[in-house]
Amino acid sequence: QLDRIIIHQQVELLEAILGTETSSKYEIKNHLGQRVYFAVEENDCFDRNLCSPIRSFTIRIADNTGREVIRVNRPLRCNSCWFPCFLQEV
């Protein structure tokens, strides 16, 4: 049973050195700091580097055995003056 979680993004060395976006990876921990889930963002290089704040992605959350327990999808939504009503949705 989890009453709170801590989400920690793993920093990629390549991203820190070159300043480019890589697929994000996260550790999801319980209040004791023990990892209970692991999350990986899936998208392509184009989305990460050119559409960063509004990019589409899928995040797969797996338990410690590697079994997927949650999948979060966010489609690409246009956020411009021509389409102001297209808010981001997950």
Tell me the layout of helices and strands:
Layout: E1 6-10, H1 13-18, E2 25-29, E3 35-42, H2 45-50, E4 57-63, E5 68-74
Antiparallel strand pairs: 1-2, 2-3, 3-4, 4-5
Overall description:
The chain has 90 residues and is mostly beta strands. It has one domain. It has two helices and five strands. Strands 1-2-3-4-5 form a five-stranded antiparallel β-sheet, with no helix packed on it. It is globular. The two termini are 25 Å apart. May mediate accelerated ATP-independent bidirectional transbilayer migration of phospholipids upon binding calcium ions that results in a loss of phospholipid asymmetry in the plasma membrane. It comes from Ceuthmochares aereus.
Q: Give me the side-by-side strand order of the main sheet.
A: 1-2-3-4-5
Q: From N to C, what is the helix and strand string?
A: EHEEHEE
What structural class is derived from the secondary structure elements?
mainly beta
Domain count: the total is 1
Total number of helices? 2
Low-confidence stretches: none
Proportion of strand residues:
35-45%
Beta strand count = 5
The coarse silhouette is: globular
Mean pLDDT score: 79
Helix content: 10-25%
Largest sheet: 5 strands, antiparallel
Radius of gyration using CA atoms only: 15 Å
Straight-line N-to-C gap: 25 Å
Compact description:
The protein is mostly beta strands and 90 residues long. The chain has one domain. The chain is built from two helices and five strands; from the N terminus they run E-H-E-E-H-E-E.
